[in-house]
Amino acid sequence: MIKTEYLVIGSGIAGLTVAHLLSEFGEVTVITKGELKSANTYWAQGGIAAVLAKEDSFESHTKDTIETGAGHNKESAVKYLVENGPKAIRLLESIGVKFQDEPVLEGCHSIPRVWRTSDFTGQDILNQLIKVVQKNKNITIKENTEAVELIESGDECRGAFIRIGEKTELEPIFAKQTILATGGCGQLFGRTTNTIGSGGDGMALAVNAGLDLKDIEFIQFHPTALDKEDNGRYFLLSEVLRGFGARIINQDGIQFIQKFDKRGELAPRDLVSRTVFFELMNGPVYLDMRHIDARLIKNTFPNIYKRTKEYGFDLINDRIPVTPVAHYACGGIPVDLKGATKMPGLFALGEVACTGVHGANRLASNSLLEAVVFSLAIAEVIERSVPMDKDKDVEVKDIKIPVVAIEDIGQIKAYSQRLGKIMWKHAGIVRTSGGLEKAKKMIIEIPARDYRIQHRQLVCYKIIEACLKRPHSLGTHYISEELT
Length: 484
Ligand SMILES: Cc1cc2nc3c(=O)[nH]c(=O)nc-3n(C[C@H](O)[C@H](O)[C@H](O)COP(=O)(O)OP(=O)(O)OC[C@H]3O[C@@H](n4cnc5c(N)ncnc54)[C@H](O)[C@@H]3O)c2cc1C
Fold this sequence. Notes:
The chain is an alpha/beta fold. Helices cover 34% and strands 18% of the residues. Flavin-adenine dinucleotide binds at residues 9-15, 31-34, 38-41, 43-48, 122, 146-147, 181-183, 193-194, 197-198, 201, 236, 328, 350-351, 365-368, 371.
């Protein structure tokens, strides 16, 4: 039987940052479904937003965040995020992350405020975090270990039931505090930038333990992923490219976003995604950098350049075909300003959580920031809590280990793809009441025996219910007719 003081579920920026901080106060166990690097964090390209430049201000970052979030944001959370931004950057620097001297511009930021290490900033940050946690004697890491259900004792969370590798039996890990850092749910949609592990597991775990989800109808769709599926995901062409002057053009070579918003390519992502989505009905849409100096492209975006080449396109000489894709969950498990859920003993942070920071649409590069700021917040409350008495405190008598059905991976894949198609078509960029109702029925009809399908089905259902409860378009939630 495994006992630990702090159980961290997930190994992206949220999980590893909080693990690093909590290791000062006690023993931490990090479990992660795949390999350590298998996380959306690894693929973040743009960077991390923070007020560090002289000409910037907390007021400006707050205003940009709230304007992008369509005013649906929790203002106290936005202020907390923005004001703790510099501290978050210092923390990353203290573990060896090296940011460039000048920030870059992304959509809806009033001034350049996005700090990057390279054009693969997420990878650089995660590599550094991995180095630090692997060296730490107070942190045990378990890869290929999946949380399947939370352990409930009375109204408290006391750890999780886990599945190791392909084993068919579950086993418990008991913990005094459990921190869900399982990331987003982009994989529930047929087209996404998200890694294979981002199927909304943490949200399903929370709902199964009696918690609600909040703002989950606000799924951010990114307008410019390279239109070529690669192992269940689409490669992102970062907004920073557009910050550098990349244009979105139609098959006739005409820029068309400007017709709908004077900010053009740097208008809010929901508007750009919708406009691209409708234009795709007339023919292909491209990202075009051919007017930009070749050396500048190669020097500023060496990784994106190389990767795009591997897909058969040249950023310098070609128009790159693009598609909008599901990218980010603005909502999730509701938490307070200290990352605590309503369930004692359970925290949530990173993309799985809903702090209220993003409102109805996320400002670019606020999510890496949110993960670090709320890791600091969780560490602060936990530091003040009573240490665990390892023998007495965590014991849960008569624990009943759940039995889960396990189907073959081909079947799981087929059902996941079916769910993905339904969600993309009916709960994607443009939603209608009829489509959402239809999707609800189709989702329930999928025979969910395996826990993985049950989890996905549950979160899809919750997203659709949330969409149906919001009769007017707001932020990323766009319906083409009023619901009756
Ligand atoms: C292509 C791309 C580019 C992006 N660019 C930026 C950017 O420039 N700036 C920015 O701020 N944001 C960006 N984002 C968003 C940002 O990367 C994510 O929101 C952030 O990395 C989420 O971090 P996280 O730690 O919450 O989740 P993740 O990094 O996704 O980590 C989740 C972890 O949980 C594990 N997990 C999931 N379920 C289970 C389970 N049941 N049991 C055990 N482990 C589990 C996963 O395997 C993974 O290790 C980007 C996202 C993508 C996809």
